[in-house]
Each structure stands twice: as C-alpha cells, then as structure tokens.
C-alpha cells in the first residue's frame, strides 16, 4: 500500500526550523499503514530534512554550526550563475540532506521520545515549502 | 511484503562504532524478500547510521573529524535546556544522519565489498541502542 | 511493485559530479510505478549521492567545501591500513551519504525544477561506478 500527501509550510529564512513530527504522524494514521516506513522529502534545493531533539537550544545550534562551517559569502562559484547570495544555502542543504525515511509500527513513527523530524530553511529569505510525505507498507 | 525487526546494541560512548552489516543481512534473509530495499534507523537523537569501509583506521578517523568540526563544548544552546554536555552529540548525529536505505537483490544487501553499514555512538556515555530494520519488497 | 536497474558511469576522480536525474526518471518510467518512491544508492564507499541544483558554480563549490572541511592528508588512520591516500575520500563520502530516496508521482520524480540527483566522485582516481536504482510503489 502507498499513500502520498503534501505538507506546505511558510518559513522565515535562513535557520528557521519547523517540527514536522505531528503532521507526519497524522498522515501515517490516515494512510492506514500499520507497519512499513515513511519518506519525508523537501521539494527544492535550499532546505533540509532530518531528525533532531526539537528544543530551543538545538534550534539555534544547528543553524549556527552550519553557518560556521559553510558560511554565507559572495565567493561561491554559485554566485557567478545566479548572483543571489545563497550559495551557502545550497551547500548547507545538500550536506544535511533533503529527505529522511523513518520506520512505521502500530500506525505510528518509530522514533525516540526526544527525536523529532525537522525541516530547516537554509535559504536567505522566507519561502513557501512543499514537503512530500510518502507512506508505504501494510 | 514488509518485515520489521529490531537490533539492540550496547555502545561505549562517543566515537564507538559497530558494524551492523551481518545482522542486517540476516534480517533480510529471514524476511524472504528477494528484491527491494532495507531501511536501517537509529531510534534516538544522539547516534548515527551510514555506510563506510569498516576498518580500524576509519573507525578512528570518522569520530575524529566529527569532533574536530563539531567539537565538545559547554557553549551550545542545548546546554541551557539540559546542562548535560552533549550538545555536540546531537549536532554530530543530526549532520551525519539517523538512517540509511540500502537496496536488496538475491536476498542480500547490494553493497560494496568494502562498504559496511555502521552505527556510530555520538553521545558522551555508554548507551543501549535500538535500531529498527525494515525490509520491503517482493 | 518493485523494479530495480543499475546505472554505470565513469568518473574522473575527486570532485567529478554527474547529474543522474534523467536516467533515474527513465528507469521510473520503465518501472510502471505511478506513485511511490525511488532509492538511488552508490555501491562503494568513496562516492556520494544527494540532491543539488546542478549548475557549474555548485559543481565546483561542493567539492571545494568538502576538501576544505575534510582535506586530503596522509595523516588519517586509514593510511595505516591501505597507504593509498584516500582517507579523506571515505570521510567525505560517508558524511555526505551514499544514497537518497525520492518520491514518485505521475510516473516521475517529485523534485524541484532546480533540484537534481547528483553523483559525486570522492575518490582520488577515475572509477567506474555502479549505482543501484530501486523503484517501489503502485
């Protein structure tokens, strides 16, 4: 069985994080899948998806470490194509990754109590984001 | 067809690596799936899953580079929530990722001879870890 | 339904990137799957798979940032096992990740207009690469 639904969110620009766990759990419930997995995929190349303990400290720490290791700069080659100042956004998103696949059991995500599915905006301005959620199983 | 089984391991703290390849292959064999894929997911937010050549050198190099780029420190915002000194553990695990999906063919993982599935403990103390393995296919 | 096919490419060594999007879309079309997802997995431990805007600037920026953060060196522990100078290749590939799972809808990848599936060679010499593509869904 496959069930697919889209989540749409509005972000505030670089470093803005959303907790998608409840919405994904609701989609899993609607799908009727008891055991299987669910893939959560950000459509677009300047935002990331993953798991984290979704608490205020780490919501600052994750964007901070990304901006430290892959800093904003006009020196990226990407500037020569687009001149839009978001080369670091692409690199941050690509390195963190655009999707995650999480197991499903008893009609729910199998994730830790302090392990949530996050969406991280890496682009420099607010964006509307489409996130495709695909559940498969029995 | 979906088959799901849990692996439990005991880790020794930050930088401890386990090779899960044989256990995952056994679960694939038990599942009866001939062609498809298998998802290997760490339940919890301070350990990572991925692929690597599982040899002693890289078992040191991977934790070393993580601790170099995302170093232990009391300066992370995460400290203000929990005061437990493992902010870097969360960031290391999130950046490396909590899961991997590997193709299955002829009832076995399709992975390179020198490509194993690893579990990396990023937390600062020994932990018992649940790893959910979900096989899907025909 | 599960459909599996291999892509073979020849790479030019560290930093060489290939856009796999068209080939993966062709395999999705051949599979007959209308809705589901597709897993793209690099067989081997020194190359990476992910999504990026596949344009000339980022094709330089991604290898550059990898070589800056995880630089070539003879100091890695991996050298003591193999003496082949590609410790950084393993670490780069493991950190970026060996696979991606992308949703399928209307017999096509659901990815952004500027979001392509890339293969990145992290090894130091040209390699022939096997990439396993597994489509599953209905």
Automatic annotation (TrEMBL), chains A, B, C:
<dbReference type="InterPro" id="IPR001602">
    <property type="entry name" value="UPF0047_YjbQ-like"/>
</dbReference>
<dbReference type="InterPro" id="IPR035917">
    <property type="entry name" value="YjbQ-like_sf"/>
</dbReference>
<comment type="similarity">
    <text>Belongs to the UPF0047 family.</text>
</comment>
<protein>
    <submittedName>
        <fullName>Secondary thiamine-phosphate synthase enzyme</fullName>
    </submittedName>
</protein>
<dbReference type="Pfam" id="PF01894">
    <property type="entry name" value="YjbQ"/>
</dbReference>
């Amino acid at each position: 069985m496959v069930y697919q639904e889209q989540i749409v969110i509005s972000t505030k620009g670089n470093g803005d994080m959303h907790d998608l766990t409840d919405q994904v759990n609701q989609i899993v419930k609607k799908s009727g899948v008891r055991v299987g997995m669910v893939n959560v995929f950000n459509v677009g190349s300047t935002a990331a998806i993953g798991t984290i303990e979704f608490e205020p400290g780490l919501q600052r720490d994750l964007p901070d470490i990304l901006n430290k290791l892959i800093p904003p700069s006009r020196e990226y080659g990407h500037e020569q194509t687009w001149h839009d100042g978001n080369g670091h956004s692409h690199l941050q998103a690509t390195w963190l990754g655009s999707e995650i696949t999480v197991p499903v059991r008893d009609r729910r995500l199998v994730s830790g109590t302090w392990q949530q599915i996050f969406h991280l905006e890496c682009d420099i301005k607010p964006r509307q984001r489409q996130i495709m959620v695909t559940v498969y199983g029995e």
